[in-house]
Amino acid sequence: MRVLIVSQYFWPENFRVNDLATELASKGHQVTVLTGWPNYPDGQVFPAFREQPKAFQSLSSVEIVRVPLLPRGTGGLRLMLNYLSFTLSASILGAWKLRGRAFDVVFVNQLSPVTVGLPGALIAKIKQAPMAMWVLDLWPDTLHAIGVVRSPKVLSWVGQLVAFIYRRCDLVLAQSKSFIPEIRKLTPPGKAVEYLPSWAEDIFQSTEVSPTTEIAHQEGSFDVMFAGNIGEAQDFPCILGAADLLKHHAHIRWLIVGDGRMRAWVEQEVQRRGLHKNVLLLGRFPVERMPSFYQRAHALLVTLQDKPIFAMTIPGKLQSYLAAGRPVVAALNGEGAALVHEAGAGRVCAAGDSQGLADAVLALSRMTDAERNSMGRKGRQISEQEFERSAVLGKLEHLLLSMRAT
Questions:
Q1: Cα-Cα end-to-end distance for the chain
Q2: Could you tell me if 339 and 382 are in contact, meaning their C-beta atoms sit under 8 angstroms apart?
Q3: What pLDDT does 59 receive?
Q4: Residue 384: CA count within 13 A, CB half-sphere
Q5: What is d(CA 227, CA 255) in angstroms, rounded to the nearest whole number?
Q6: Helix axes of 236-245 and 354-365: crossing angle, nearest 10 degrees
């Protein structure tokens, strides 16, 4: 099967689409990725790519076709221009670079922005190939939730654009079950919509990982670790509010591993609140290093803002957390919260509830190792049942093969 993956983000940026592409290639499929210049999350093109762009033309046996874009930079306007530049560049230059190539299926990896579906749809039409789109970020709901767009008229226009893209898909894949009814509102009757969650990468399931040495050992500490994007959706005001409430519990440390657009604000707040001994910002590391960081944590933290769209979302990090076999502390609503609670894999409080988060962390810190280990085992069990990598990717491969057959 000849697969074209259209994704604004790809290796060396850290996203599951990297794993997806290499897995399909390992099964003997011919995989090509159309993507842009790597610049996430710092907002600047990676220096290594600038110096040697030819070194990033393939990943294992996956061919990578790159088109230029305006880096994300800082600020909302620059981000919108980043989205627009990739859409135009992939549609025009990308289609030109792929001229004369035949594909059996086009797969669109839709994080933000949804406009990645436009070059996907155009190239699918040119190649006369069916198109599938994996919806990981629900537009226009997310734009409204994080305040990027407040105008009802503009949100309506975005909704029409989303419906336009969905109509051109032969298959729409939803990252959570809660997404499916919302997607159906914008798709014609009978449109194929399937549930395809994210999965836990194999590296997180290893039990023979040594703890990282980047985190100084502190005798008697209880370490709560957040790993991932430091952005608006992750609700750092809630996290820092909880840290502030617990700052007199000197044994509790909040370890932030990652980077993002709100990092500077978080750093300022840590200093303003006097949390520099309680909250440690450790920076960003490759995904391959994360299991060793998780081994340093007594609990793994996942948060999202108190918005309806985020109640329908299963945060991508949650699958990795569960697979790692560590207790999860979740300040979430909806599907993600229910998953942790029903599995008995940790403690849950409402999204945005700093007091509830502080109480949950304090309660976990007072548990015995045996009690926390039991939670970790239950998390790993639900991970194996619901998000096992080979099963999820096997389902995707089957769906794509079925599309080709039709």
A1: 13
A2: yes
A3: 97
A4: 10
A5: 8
A6: 60
**In this model, does residue 405 exceed pLDDT 70?**
no
Instruction: Quickly count: other Cβ atoms within 10 Å of residue 268's Cβ.
Output: 10
| pLDDT: which is higher, 153 or 375 | 375
Least confident of 203-217, 219-233, 276-290, 386-400: 203-217
pLDDT computed for residue 212 by the predictor: 81
Express each pLDDT in 52-102 by its tens digit: 999 999 999 999 999 999 999 888 789 889 999 999 999 999 999 999 999
* Cβ pair 299, 364 in contact under 8 A: yes
Amino acid present at 281: L
Cβ neighbours for 18, distance < 8 A, ≥ 6 positions apart:
10, 11, 59
Q: Spell out the residues 6+ positions from residue 1 whose beta carbon is closer than 8 angstroms to its own.
A: 29, 30, 104, 105, 400, 401, 404
- What angle, 0 to 180 degrees and rounded to 10, lies between the N-to-C axes of helices 316-324 and 369-386? 120
Is 205-386 a CATH 2.60.40.10 domain?
no
Q: Contact at 8 Å (CB) between 65 and 93? A: no
2-199+388-405 with 205-386: one CATH topology?
Answer: yes
Core vs surface per residue 80-115: b (16+ CB within 10 A) or e: ebbbebbbbbbbebbbeebeeeebbbbbbbbbbbbb
pLDDT tens figures, 202-216: 888 766 777 888 887
Residue with tokens 């907002």: 43
Q: Which fold, 2-199+388-405?
A: Rossmann fold (3.40.50)
Cα distance between residue 93 and residue 2, in whole Å: 20
**Local structure of 182: helix, strand or coil:** helix
Domain edges within the chain: 2-199+388-405, 205-386
Give exposure, 15-25, as e/b (b: 16+ Cβ within 10 Å). bbbbbbbbbbb
Residue 369, Cβ density class (10 Å: 0-12 exposed, 13-18 middle, ≥19 buried): exposed
